[in-house]
Amino acid sequence: MRTATLLRSGPAVWAALVLIPVLVWFSAQNTESTVAYWPSISSQTTIVIGFISAACGAGAAWEAARLKQGAIPALAPARGMLSIAALHLGPIAVLGLIAIVAPFAVVMSSVTVPSGFPNPAILTVSYSVILSHIALGWFVGARMPKLLGAATMLLFGYLWGFWPAAIGTLPWLRHLNGQGVTECCGLDQEPSVRSMAATVMFSLAIVTAIVLNSALPKRPWRPLLPLAAFTAVTAVALTLAIPLDFNGTQTRDIALRTCSGQNPQICLWPEQDTQRDEITRWADEATKKLAAVGVTPDRQVQFGNPHPDQANVASNIATSPVPSEPPPCALRRGAAYPGDEAMVAIYAWLSLTGGVPKHDLAQRWPPEAINLAERVRALPPQAQNAWYERNMRSVHDCSVLPDLNPASYTKAAAS
Question: Where is the DUF7224 domain (predicted)?
Answer without folding.
Answer: 266-398
